[in-house]
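Subject: two folds for Thursday's group meeting

Dear M.,

Sorry for the delay on this. The cluster queue was jammed most of the week, so I only got both jobs back this morning. I'm pasting them in the order they finished. Each block is the input sequence followed by the predicted structure tokens. Could you check whether the formatting survives your parser before we put anything on slides? The first protein is the one we discussed after the seminar.
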Amino acid sequence: MSNDRKPYGPRVSYEEARPHILNLVAGGKARPSAKDLYDVMGRGSIATHQKHIDRFREEEQPRRAAELVMPPDAQEFYLLVLRKQLSEARRDFESELLELRQDKATLVEESERLQEELEASEARYLEASSQLQQKLGAMEQMNEEISRLRLEVERAKEEARREIDAVRLAADTAIAGIENRAKQDMAALRIDIDNFRQESEKSKLALVKADLRLEELPRLSAEKDRLQKAFDAERDNRHKAEQNRAVAEARCDELKAYRTEAEGLRDELKSLQEKRLALETAVATLTAERVAEKRANKP
């Protein structure tokens, strides 16, 4: 089947087609076909052109019959002419019959082409309908997925709130305990240092007095030994005080570490809040895209 048909375009009226039929007849086409008229005009359908040609022939037939009427006084003269005209009419009839058969074949071909186009259109419609149903099903699944994601986001928000509250409570409790212990240790350390200073002053004074009483050396020597032992004891106490101070400083460092850990927990809290915001933004963006797609696919 030929696929070089021109598009039908606007519908062709008989008044538009008649001048072209006359031009075809004047150009030597005694019986123009629907295909001839279509090739000249370049638009319309074969069936419409065939109707216009049939109407033209019906209008022209009475004119030809009138031309065949002979005057009574010239019947014998025109008898031969009549026979000749009848012979020509027969040839015209046979030619018309042949053209009608050709037009019929053309119409059958056109009908088959239209049937194929109709079937192709139905197949495209069925395919488009199937694709639409698939898209609708996919959109329904997307809506369900969005609802599920929203529920998960709400659960994640609630869990994050509980975790953040628990972390805050634990951090506040730990910091308060560390601060209290540090204050107590520092107060005890100050008392030990003051006591050590007082005892040290006393020991120094006693040593000076011992040096001034050389005449009482034996007794003072014994006193000195006693004071030296006291001094050594005080030195030990001072060493212990230094150790306590080191412990206090270590506890201060521990406090700083707890504070650093608390700041890390605050940073982690901030990160969780940022992740929650990003997740909410992603869900909102996904929802907007699904709504836009649903509107774009709406027939």
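Second protein, same layout:
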Amino acid sequence: MAKTLPPRTLLQDEIDVFSRQAPEGLVIAEVRGRTIIKLDWQGQDKTEKLDKAMGGLLPTVGQSTADSGKGALRYAPFSVLLVSAELTARDLVAERQKSLSDLGVTWVDLSHGYVVLRLSGERAREVLDSMASTDLSAGRFNPGAVARTSIRKHQVLVHSLNSSCLEVYLERSYALSFWHLLEHKIALG
């Protein structure tokens, strides 16, 4: 029986071409298989209860936390993304579903509607920072930081993993357009 190849990603052709001619100090890859759940709620009183229901996983605004294969990226006072490379959407919220419902928290699975790009290398931060409306420089946007920002009219969420690695979450329908912006910026230097 013939082996089937895994499906190609939305940006696979562009990434393949870029990889062959990438400038030194920059690697771009599409992160596959990431579960992304968006949680929204109203009110500071619910924030404290939600933090308790999540076992202390809820970070402060603009920060991220990680524990046991799952993470939380809090980009607004009453919004957070739960992310995992290991758990399905159902598994990620299953243990908290009753608590979430009781608190009036809405959640939606964004996994198939979003693309996650990882930019790494010594030039990664420089490229994104020059395009973003938020200061993403190393001294201002430290590891663990999260920001919802505009990059040339594309609304994205940027997560700093370390001093030379950033992840960009963006809607899948804008991924190719965003990719062309990155290519253009990199070509201009």
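Two things I noticed about the second structure. DSSP finds six helices and ten strands in the chain. The chain has a mean pLDDT of 89.

Cheers,
T.
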